[in-house]
Amino acid sequence: MIAARGVEKRFGRKRALRPTDLAVDRGAFAVVTGANGSGKTTLLRLVAGLLAPTGGELEVAVDRGALGFVGHEPLVYRDLSGLENLDLYGRLYRVPERRERAGMLLERFDLWDARNDRAATYSRGMLQRLALCRALLHEPELLLLDEPFNALDTDGAQLLDRQLAELAGVSTVLLATHDPERVEPLATARLALT
């Protein structure tokens, strides 16, 4: 599903990602590790199509509408409620029965009681949970997760653990993390960036 050969990214003279090779098969659960500044976020943004590589080749064999992305920003509208955000994204992705799917995800990620509250009132952990709901809403073929456990409390992290276990082998997952041990049982591919 993802094939990168010598893919790299520079911003002027600053190198954000060294030439990297990556092969992720359909249904794989790939874990990307590395120190801060090694290019994990840059690699995920390249795969998502949010950045263009400055060198090498990158092929992603999935339509962008079948991609889910959770980065450092939750990418939700703060003036809308949690439910309104998911309804909006559901319409954009043409999710059948979007309200039912949104409700199910809000319940699963323990946001049901706050569904009508503006996202601006959510804690950072709640925003991360809402971002996960947004990314999963359209049941993406490829899920890109950049440090998805950030800002989650113990309960939120356990919810994400269960969701990732359900996705393993069903969706293709590319997950960047500083804590690879947490997802090691799910990993079918690994990439360590330097």
Protein topology:
Blueprint: E1 2-11, E2 14-24, E3 29-33, H1 40-48, E4 55-60, E5 67-70, H2 82-92, H3 98-108, H4 124-136, E6 142-146, H5 154-167, E7 172-176, H6 180-183, E8 189-192
Parallel strand pairs: 3-7, 3-8, 5-6, 6-7
Antiparallel strand pairs: 1-2, 1-4
Helix pairs in contact: 2-3
> What is the approximate shape?
globular
Order of helices and strands: EEEHEEHHHEHEHE
Count of strand segments: 8
Count of discrete alpha- or pi-helical segments spanning 4 or more residues? 6
Q: Give me the oligomer status.
A: single chain
Placed side by side, the strands forming the largest sheet appear as 5-6-7-3-8
Class by SSE composition: alpha/beta
Question: What's the architecture of the largest domain in CATH terms?
Answer: 3-Layer(aba) Sandwich
Largest sheet: 5 strands, parallel
Q: pLDDT average, as an integer?
A: 96
Which range does the strand content fall in? Answer: 25-35%
Ends: how far apart? Answer: 23 Å
Name of the CATH homologous superfamily of the largest domain: P-loop containing nucleotide triphosphate hydrolases
